[in-house]
């Protein structure tokens, strides 16, 4: 019998009840992550990638949120029906989470050491002293200078990049098998972004965990991921190994995303304007019939709006949700 | 920290001086003459009266009177009451413990109501509990203490006859009976003040907790796998306490004001009723001293708030 995948999200639908109606933030998403692999989920703001990630640990507010359909298999066990007690045993212990905003994700009234130690104590029941030692060790691991002293500092005494390192140290303190990083570099300076990505890659090598990296930046994807899932308006539109995706994107949305990566060289020498995808993400209150991207797509044909295209495997390991995908090969 | 304390205490001096100037001027400008009684007494010849006035310096200019009052105050001579002929400091020391006990107990009651109710309501916003708590809190702080006080007396003392409605200083009982009587006669004033404050603070605690509960670090705490009770207590309530502490300390002047009214209603022989009777009797030294003690207490609580604030919030440093 083969080992079940580490994480297998199957047909996940997450709905939010609002005054205007039901928002289908995630509308049938399937994503799998294998042991030791980095999978990146990309898409623009509001495509449902963060909600998908948060739902894996049931960190979305319920209500108004609701898992309407689907399964989230963690090592073969469905976490959707799990009670809060069982969820707590998975949080941080088996799946670590790094949030987007390092400036606000740490509690300002406790030292970083206390906050990391709290996680360790919760899951491993070690003494206060041992937990604090582990905290210092983790700070050293994420390359914070002077860890045994810094462990007694408060979050406001750290810069944004350093706080994100603390967050990573905290998420990794119990040796999780999977690290979910929700736009870990979005709030940081460009130079710090690169450092944090390097750190994530290095941590992954050393600790051997899998990483589910949520981002909207194609550059981040190229640097870190082995496999990429592109989301648009609550659904997956393309999934491929990273090389194949950048070499031959099969969905017009992915093509647009890749074209909109800023190229400094071209901007300087040819004064080319940055290409953007026209239009905005459709409302998830009542998504359009047919292909959700059709209204913004330069390759759209009348057939596109007839019915929602299926996610089809166009090449081995490369799927796309576009009726004209073959034409882009 | 010590340096900060010393500096704050030094800053308190000009505030107290300013307060005393204002108090003194207002009282000096107020109508009424402490010698009215002597003036109308035919047994005292006018020249004796004039001599008395001169020796007490009552006809000196205001600023001169202020400075003689100030220096006497600094030497610890607070003067004596025109009415009871008892030294003012003695009078205040007699009355202050009762007031502090009543106010202290009522604040404990208020916090004991506001913290659990406010936190519980905020963790379940718009639930039935929250709606009921909100409504009661609204009613509670809309009703002034002089009204609820009378209502309590009417209900518990007159209709039900459970509690005495006049506070007695000299209790004839001894031993545990004394404590029992003391408790019985304190319940109503303490509850009237405590419920009023508790109602106002419940709403404040609720909104402070609601502000914190949706912050990112609370989600982080959940992602760490902490039990919900620990998330609420350590990562929500702890942070929400920061603004609550400030409010509690800054509301102390209002609490003292409320205590004056409540003491009057229940005939509690505290500083508040002393002040009211002094005002009615034109007893300037007592008015001056009591208001000054109140001002000192208010400044003290502000200092206490600042110290607690820095202790609760590490981002604030004492420099």
UniProtKB/TrEMBL annotation, chain B:
Q: Where in the cell is it found?
A: Cell membrane
Keywords attached to this Swiss-Prot or TrEMBL record, sorted alphabetically, are: Cell membrane, Membrane, Transmembrane, Transmembrane helix, Transport
Membrane topology according to the record: Multi-pass membrane protein
Record's SUPFAM superfamilies? MetI-like
Q: Which residues form the signal peptide?
A: none
Q: Which CDD domains does the entry mention?
A: TM_PBP2 (cd06261)
**Spans traversing the lipid bilayer:** 9-30, 98-123, 135-160, 240-266, 286-312
Question: Which parts form a coiled-coil structure per UniProt?
Answer: none
UniProt-listed InterPro entries: BPD_transp_1_N, MetI-like, MetI-like_sf
In what residue span(s) does the ABC transmembrane type-1 domain sit? 96-305
User: What family is reported?
Assistant: Belongs to the binding-protein-dependent transport system permease family.
Protein name, UniProt field: ABC transporter permease
Species source reads Sabulicella glaciei
Query: According to the entry, what is the taxonomic lineage of the organism?
Result: Bacteria, Pseudomonadati, Pseudomonadota, Alphaproteobacteria, Acetobacterales
